[in-house]
Amino acid sequence: MDFPIDTLKRPLKDLRISVIDQCNFRCPYCMPAEVFGNHYAFLKRDELLNFDEITRLTRIAADLGVHKIRLTGGEPLLRKDIDQLIKMLVAIPRIDDLALTTNGVLLPRFAERLKNAGMKRITVSLDALDNDCFQKMNGRNVQVAAVLKGIEAAAAAGLRIKINMVVQKGVNESEILPMSRFFKQNGHTLRFIEFMDVGNHNGWKMEQVFPSRRIVELIQSEFPLEPLNPNYPGEVARRYRYSGTEVEIGVIASVTQPFCANCMRSRLSADGKLYTCLFANEGWDLREVLRNGETDDDIRETLRAIWENRHDRYSELRTEILKKHLHPHKVEMSYIGG
Ligand code: SAM
Ligand code: SF4
Ligand code: SF4
């Protein structure tokens, strides 16, 4: 039976679910090849939450107010039968927004299946149009054309598409304008993400962050932009429209303008650990709770307690942490999916 949403004192609207920690890329800002090489201990199959477990947790989270789910990884299209999971998640009544973030190269094979399973929109990550630059950024010499083919396949299947571009000063800032021109032309929303100090291995330095404010100024030097109101309170991206068009861009200023005070997003790793912050040190083991025979009510109360007692605000504290030369251990991006 359906009952009213049991809202949390502090809202939790958005859950990112990593379905696999492995990836076919080795982007140095996320999974540097020297760390995530042949000997890296990825999760084994039986360690992953199965689809029934993911669906059950999602249903319980939806009872507490979550309405938006993003499947991620690692590379989510490497998870076997991902379309089966999508079918199960779209059937949950309170989930009104299901998305997936992918590096795009497997989309020619999967786009139709995603659409047929009930997925409406996806995000494809692409950091450059210049092949040399992109090959450096994906760590596996993958060609831009392979991702563009994926984007075309997704569009042909009728999926709405957003593009994510991580901007790293000195690496791909020269690609901001070419990317902007290209995606303005073909109408997909392009979102610029500041390079973040996620995980423990990407050698992040503040000097490598290209501030979102400058991205907007740069684009405005070529195309007039109009700021748009947020679609909903707490929206992470600041949105703009190219004047005279319906085409949008977004900037995610997670480093230079942190938004912890409005953070309504939690992350579930592929082995069922819940992280209340992208920069958390540890997660809460929900797989154990699920496999221990606890009832839905017990699990809902566990979730409530975790979320209502959190104090995360890493991005707001970053400058202080850096000043003190502290190096807190953080969860890896490829493990919780961004
Ligand atoms: N493999 C998929 C992909 O790349 O789209 C999904 C997982 S990936 C971890 C999710 C998003 O995180 C991608 O858009 C990626 O560019 C972004 N990302 C990874 N490392 C990052 C970093 N250090 N700073 C900012 N964004 C990052
Ligand atoms: Fe893989 Fe995505 Fe991380 Fe790149 S950003 S290494 S594609 S998980
Ligand atoms: Fe949320 Fe943590 Fe990011 Fe702040 S740093 S917005 S608390 S995920």
Structural class: alpha/beta
Q: How are the strands ordered across the major sheet?
A: 7-8-9-6-5-4-3-2-1-10-11-12
What Rg, in angstroms, do the CA atoms define?
Answer: 19 Å
Bound molecules: S-adenosylmethionine, iron/sulfur cluster
| Level-1 CATH class name | Alpha Beta
Share in helix: 25-40%
Give a structural overview:
By secondary structure, the protein is of the alpha/beta class. Helix content is 32%, strand content 17%. It is built from eleven helices and twelve strands. A twelve-stranded mixed sheet has the order 7-8-9-6-5-4-3-2-1-10-11-12. Helix 1 (51-63) packs parallel to helix 2 (82-90) and helix 1 (51-63) crosses helix 9. It is globular. The protein starts with 13 loop residues before the first strand and ends with a helix. The model has no long low-confidence stretch (mean pLDDT 95). One iron/sulfur cluster is lined by residues 23, 25-27, 30-31, 73-75, 103, 125, 334.
